[in-house]
Amino acid sequence: MAEHDLIDDAAFDAQPGAKKAAGTAIVVGGRRLTIEDVVAIAERRAPVALSDDPAWRSRIERGADFLRRHLASGATVYGVNTGYGDACVVDVPMDLVEALPLQLTRYHGCGMGVHLDDAQTLAVIAARLNSLAYGFSGVRPVLLERLADLINHRVLPRIPSEGSVGASGDLTPLSYVAAALVGERDVLFDGELRDASDVWAQLGHAPLTLAPKEGLALMNGTAVMTGLACLAFARADHLTRLVARLTALSTVALDGRAAHFDALLFEAKPHAGQAEAAAWIREDLAGRADTPGHRLQDRYSIRCAPHVIGVARDALSWVRRDIENELNSANDNPLIDPDGERVLHGGNFYGGHIAFAMDSLKVAVANLADLMDRQLALIVDDKFNNGLPRNLSGASPARAPINHGFKAVQISSSAWTAEALKLTMPASVFSRSTEAHNQDKVSMGTIAARDCLRILELTAQVAAAHTLATVQAMQLRLRMNETTPVPAPLRAFAGRVSAQSPFVDEDRALEPDLRALTARIMDCALIDGYRGESIA
């Protein structure tokens, strides 16, 4: 564990699904995957295994067999014996059909931007594998086996993050997955950048030769945006719980009023998410009685926190539905019906549901950043913090004139919040006509998912700043009045934070503390089964 982790090794290992314990293989094929399944795969806590159900395996084989027979009969199938996209009117001679998939993977090798990290790459592969395992893509079992090998052997294609408009699926980034399977381009393996063909040789496999539709099946789908959306969901889910905890801690630090979170208030306005957030805050404040004095009502960023957090909680319910529907769908084109033996040309590659979900989650998460930033601004300002020192300085009176505590941290928090808010512009409304006006209405789902992850990163930074400042404020409050009631969950939480980031008496550079805590927050969001309890 890193030096600044909030959880000691023994406590962490004891948690269900901890990273250090290899989990049971997640079965792909004939069952629905959850967001948590994808996150476990992405975090290397579980391998994958293809289903051994004979009915499922038969379905996969029948789809590939029907497609072979259909082509042999002289039928025309888009992207199999025709050109791609606007070139669907171009017939491909039978002697070039076998070469066509490889050409597709090669000409889409034009991605740019930073590469997806390891967790993002594994999430993308898991999403693509599960879609193809749905049984409507006409691929061979060996293709599914090789995708599983990418996950289980950690053969990670270097996937550039930019270049997809989200329809016709994530073509360009997914071409890097396809290229890895055929032994082209570089992959990460055992921490080194290696040629894909050399890695397959080391693993005892020849690079895959793609069957006629398999290049299109790999690339023509929503796996990149969906994999990223799974990670975004997990982080947002965790952040809502953390913001509730920080609201409770802020209430103590500001000597505020627990009565603002009375259950009856939230029964009178029955949004499930805000009631859940209020219940978390009440639990953290249990046993704290309001004292007379100060304001009758705390400012909105405290009093209305459940209402802000509740919007995100309620949004997550339908965001989960849409992500998991996309995850458990056949989203390439054409679809191959192995039962009715039909080829269906459609548009399931369109990522509109993920685009809208990510655009919406961006707004909900950025509002969490704004809420925490407002709470932090109250806590550091001696005009509003009910008697705490200016900028939460812990210096002695003699040294106070030259110490500035959390002044710069609040400025940085404001900057991160502003950047998060700026990124909430919806990507889905920026559809661009591409590819000779064949792809003339596109989803921009992958850009929305990338934006959402960036907002989550910025919000985690705000949460780290708020955490350090609020724990400092609570300690200062206790110095002023050692009988200040601090409920047990908050005292334990503050103790863990303080163990890794000590009380700031003399000014010091807080970047290492902030980076370590931000990493801890992001890491908790990726741990299956956690909703903030890991920092309790």
Radius of gyration: 26 Å
Shape: elongated
Beta-strand portion reads 5-15%
Instruction: List the secondary-structure elements in sequence, H or E.
Output: HEHEHHHEHHEEHEEHHHHHHHEEHHHHH
Q: Within the largest sheet, what's the order of strands?
A: 4-6-7
Mean pLDDT: 89
Tell me the structural class. Answer: mainly alpha
Distance between the termini: 18 Å
By DSSP (H or I, 4+ residues per run), the number of helices equals 20
Give your account of this protein's structure.
- By secondary structure, this protein is mostly helical.
- 52% of the residues lie in helices and 5% in strands.
- The chain is built from 20 helices and nine strands.
- The protein has helices at 9-14, 35-42, 54-72, 94-97, 100-107, 118-132, 141-152, 171-181, 196-202, 214-219, 223-253, 263-267, 272-284, 300-303, 305-327, 352-380, 407-422, 445-480, 488-500, 511-525; strands spanning 26-28, 48-50, 112-115, 156-157, 160-162, 186-189, 192-195, 335-337, 342-344.
- A three-stranded antiparallel sheet has the order 4-6-7. Strands 1-2 form a two-stranded parallel ribbon.
- A hairpin with a 2-residue loop joins strand 6 and strand 7.
- The chain is elongated.
